[in-house]
Design brief:
This protein is mainly alpha-helical. It has one domain. It is 59% helix and 0% strand. The protein has 9 helices and no strands. Helix 1 crosses helix 2, helix 3 packs parallel to helix 5 and helix 4 packs antiparallel against helix 5. The longest helix has 26 residues. The radius of gyration is 19 Å and the shape is elongated. The two termini are 23 Å apart.
Length: 220
Amino acid sequence: MARSPVSNLGELLRRDPAMSGIGLPRPRSPKPDKKLGLVSAKNEDWQAISSAVTALFQRKKLENFELEALTVKVKTVKLELGINQICNNYKESILMKGMIILREDVKEKSGELLLEKLAEVWVYFFGYILPMLQAVFLHLTPPDGLTIRDISLLSFRDIVVLKTKLEEAFCMDLAVPPRVTQMLLVLQVKKNFVCLNFAGVVIFLCSLLPPNYRIHRINR
């Protein structure tokens, strides 16, 4: 069965060429960045949060009682910086670095190998990293109507999924792993945010369906 072509959504510019991949030692947190609003009094707490969360993306586990300590640090930093600033720090610093780490394992893959690796990355992210992010940032409520779960899923969608060669794999008429289908179903739910990228996910999802089913759904 031929697959419907999908549009190329471009390549994400990598911020740091020296970014370490999955499985490497836990990196040091970035130096305080005035642009992110980090203040010296709380820099130590933020470094601890950033380092521990980055390690999750490198398939490291939190130490005993580390989760509780991190939730307290998040509350402390939130009181100092405010919700808007810490949410921006979370999206622009922690998530950006973490998603680039995850993407390292799939960015050069193609075809069947890409589908297999992407399924593995999704299972680890969705089953372990995402729940841990929700727990660490339990006391953080973004002001834009999204949740930490929403922001994290959108980041995975935009930085990992839509920046791979997934379109090529779908044009090869390969069997799609159930976890990849699950991933697209989960990611397409947030249609009210970032419409262009949502459209990209829908195109991917539609390419998994038989032609007759697609026509039936479109005509309904």
